[in-house]
Design a protein that fits this description.
With about 120 residues, the protein is mainly alpha-helical. It is built from 5 helices and no strands. The chain starts with 8 loop residues before the first helix and ends with a helix.
Amino acid sequence: MSEFAINTAARQTAFIAQIRHESAGFTQLTESFQLPARSARDLLTRTRFDACTLGRHPDEKTVPPARQQQIAHLAYANRYGNGDAASGDGWRYRGRGLKQITFFDNYRDCGRARRRSCCAT
C-alpha cells in the first residue's frame, strides 16, 4: 500500500472496500457473467449489441457458460489490446484476481510489473 500512496486510514478503507466489492466479498477471483438480461443489456449497450437474449432469463438459475462467454467477448472486444469478439479475448482476459484485472493490456502490464518486483534485488 505504501508503494501506491494508500497510506492513510481513509485510503486504506476505500481500497479494501473496493477489493471487497470487486471480489464479491472476497469470495470470487474470476469475473462472473451471471447477469440478468437487463444487466447484460446495460453492459453491452456501450458496444451497441442487443444483449437481451444473452443474460439470465427469468426461468434460469444461471447463465449457461456459452452465453457468459458471448457476453464477455462482446463487452470487451476491441479495447485495451483485446481483439474483436471472434478472437476469444473477451473471455480469455476477463476480470481475475481480487482487483479483477481485465483486458490484454492490463494482464500484460501486471505480468511485467510482477516480474520486475520478483526479480529486483
